[in-house]
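Working notes for the structural subgroup meeting. M.R. asked for a predicted model of this chain before we commit to crystallization trials. I am recording the input and output together here so anyone reviewing the notebook later can reproduce the run.

Input as submitted:
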Amino acid sequence: MAVATAENVGKRFSLERMLGAREQSWAALRDIASRIVPGMSEAEAIALAGERLAAAGMQRIWHPSIVRFGANTLKTFRQRSAPDTVLAADDIFFIDLGPVFDGHEGDVGDTFVVGHDATMQACAEASRELFERTAARWRQGVTGVALYDYASSEAGAMGWRLNHATKGHRVGDYPHAVHKAGALGGFDAVPVPGLWILEIQIAHPSLPVGAFYEDLLMA
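Returned structure, recorded in token form:
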């Protein structure tokens, strides 16, 4: 990747508005998660996400809202879910949102559990813990490539498997895609704060249970 241009932003970029978009995105995600219940299909949950984002004042989406139930939590962003999946009474799900607020891109994701399955609870918690460990490693000044090497090693040490197809990316003032930054996991320099999304997707080593967490890397 062209390191010299990977962190370019537009003339309208503002770190303050970037952080505001992050806050609004997290508020919307928590609102959506609170309304997802057993018996709901993924399609219904995605429609719900669209309604709640609109109610939150979203200008548009920069990537489609993703909601995964059950074994579909093993799927990456571009993979299709198994059709007609319905959330069970004891189940796991994650939400991945990419809304635009005030001309700036939010990108947040988290995993939730309904019922009392201990393995699912542990998986959801582990995705958040691995995110925090990896973000702390980034604050020590490592490249994006080294960051995901670290995440993979830590995931294994924690008893989980890192999904290597999910390796983070740029955000910014909309549309960040004009800068062609590539994946965080392929960035061979130290990422600056406020422009990169750290994505963590893990799976149980043998069971069809996965979890996802993502947020903006901030100092």
